[in-house]
Amino acid sequence: MHFFRRLQDIRAISFDLDDTLYDNRPVIEHAEQWMVDHLRDRYLAGAMYDRMWWQHLKHELQQTDPRLKDDVSLCRLTMLEIGLQRGGMPELQAKNEAKQLFAQFLEVRSQVTVPEHSIEVLKQLSKHFPLVVITNGNILLERIGLDGHFKHVLKAGDGRKMKPAPDMFRLMAAQLSRRRIRSCMSGTM
Hints:
By secondary structure, the protein is mostly helical. The protein contains seven helices and three strands.
C-alpha cells in the first residue's frame, strides 16, 4: 500500500454498529420473523400476511414517500400502520397498535450479544480517541450494553439521510469540532 499524503491526526473514530461490532443478519432475520408471527398470532388484521407481503408493502411505501428510504424507524412504523389498515383495522386503532408493535419490535431487534472482544477494543480505543456512532439502523444501544462507550450517536432519520450520503458525517464533524473548541477553551484538551 502506498500513501502519497501524510495522514492527518486522528481526532475521533466513527463506528457503524450493525455487522461491525456484532453480526446483525441473524438479529434482523429473527426480528422480522417475530413481527410476522406476532401479527399472525395477535392481530386478525395482520394474520394473512407473510414476510414477502410486508417486504412488498415496505418497497411500495418507500416509492410513495421517499423520506422512508432514509428512516428505517419511520418506515417500519408506517408499514405496520398501513398494513394493519389494509387488513381491516380502523385508522386510529392501527396508528396506536403500530406504535406499540414498533416498540416491541425494537426490543426484539435489540436482542444482541456484543462479543466481549468488541467491547474490549472499544475500551482500549476510548483511552486515546473519542468514539462516535454513525448508523442507518435503530438498535437500542442501552439494551446491548454499548450506550456508555460513545461520545456522540447519530442515527439516520429525522431529516438526516442514510449513509453513504454525507449528512451525518458532516453533522458529526460539526459536533466533534464544537466539543474540541469547548475543551480547548476549558483547558482540558
